[in-house]
Amino acid sequence: MSVFASSNTVDSDGLKKTTAVLSFDTVTRGDMGHYLCIASNSVPPTKSKRMVLNVRYREPAVFVSHQMIGAYLGDSITINCTVKAYPRPVVFWQDSTGKIIISNDRFRVKEMLVGYSPPEILTMLTISDIKAEDFTTYRCNASIDNDKTREKSLAVQLSEISRPSTESSVIFKVARQPKNLQKPMSKQKQINGIGDRYEKPTHLAPGFPDIFSQPSHGLPNYGQGPPASSGNRSCSCTKLLYLLIGWWLLPGAVRGAAA
């Protein structure tokens, strides 16, 4: 767009006459509005003249906030549509069958002029007590001079939303603790493990029995049946007594043999 301003002054009957020209190279919708021509000289007051430039639209400009809207069954909803055009367009709503919607007990159409240059119209379609058959497509239409070739429309899809459940159940799952695959050691194994820490003698003195190869009777034998009879216990005690006496007399016998 290019705008040019020029003026020319001529003398007429002793007065100076000035002509100002405002030129538009290519007029667009944005050029539409009010323009003010102001004339002033050294003598007040200043004079002005307001002029309006209107640009005819080839077709209306239609806007909707959302082309897909969700609603609950039984609720009410309002669909907004804004239309801009000059001259002022004719605006109406249609359902999916092409039928023009007229205000009634459940459908209400309201229209407001919210702008003047260019004319801007806000149209609202309100649906009350929404039923299953109301979930369909609605079309906002606008035409200039009722000319089909200068008509524009936008569709809005109304879809159903499932209501959230009033009762909600929460299930808590507790993680299982891993099972201990190693069983606790029995008392007998604990006692035997203590004995395994000490090495068995590899050389014994001549004439002494290998008592280390025989089971111990001094410690309780857990988990291996009833204890031995009293006769066996006395025999084992006698052998142990002889062994201790032998160990005590052994140094003297060795010294006598050496002498």
Automatic annotation (TrEMBL):
Domain Ig-like: 60-155
InterPro entries xrefs: Ig-like_dom, Ig-like_dom_sf, Ig-like_fold, Ig_sub, Neural/epithelial_adhesion
Entry's Gene Ontology cellular component terms: neuron projection
Keyword terms: Disulfide bond, Immunoglobulin domain, Repeat
Pfam families the record matches: Ig_3
UniProt cross-references to PROSITE patterns, sorted A to Z: IG_LIKE (PS50835)
PANTHER family for the chain: CTX-RELATED TYPE I TRANSMEMBRANE PROTEIN, DPR-INTERACTING PROTEIN ETA, ISOFORM B-RELATED
Name of the protein this chain belongs to: Ig-like domain-containing protein
Organism, scientific name: Scylla paramamosain (Mud crab)
